[in-house]
Amino acid sequence: MHRLISCLMSMPAQVVDYLTQFSGIQPGDLDASLSLKHLTTLKSTYLKLRYLISCKVVFVSHGLKKDFHVLNLIVSAENLHHSELFVKALTTGLKP
């Protein structure tokens, strides 16, 4: 499995809970004036995702269906897979 894209977006709004134990994101990571990480804009990320969707890329992650819904992007079920399926496959030896 290869990670094709991983973006952190600068956020003008205050983040209430970073869910650090799952995301690894710390306070300041999404603040353009403080972060040492490469940050991108919502528009840039949206355009990248639209391009990848048009190329029929398969997305594997946790919670992407809701993320795409919030961004008003439609991804076919065959191109959107929950990472839990791959974890189960790795632990049981079955194909995802």
Instruction: Report the uncertain regions.
Output: none
Distance from N terminus to C terminus (CA atoms, Å) equals 11 Å
Largest sheet: 2 strands, parallel
What is the 3D shape?
globular
Helix content: 25-40%
Please give the domain count. 1
The class by helix and strand makeup works out as alpha/beta
Whole-number average pLDDT? 82
Percent of residues in beta strands? Answer: 5-15%
Give me the number of helical elements.
4
Number of strands: 4
The radius of gyration computed from the alpha-carbon positions, rounded to a whole number of angstroms, is 15 Å
Placed side by side, the strands forming the largest sheet appear as 1-2
One letter per element, helices H and strands E, the order comes to EHEHEHEH
Describe the structure.
- By secondary structure, this protein is an alpha/beta fold.
- It has one domain (8-92).
- The protein is 35% helix and 10% strand.
- It contains 4 helices and 4 strands; from the N terminus they run E-H-E-H-E-H-E-H.
- It has helices spanning 20-23, 42-54, 64-70, 83-92; strands at 8-9, 39-40, 59-61, 80-82.
- A two-stranded parallel ribbon has the order 1-2.
- Strand 3, helix 3 and strand 4 form a beta-alpha-beta unit.
- The longest helix has 13 residues, at 42-54.
- The termini are close together.
- The model has no long low-confidence stretch (mean pLDDT 82).
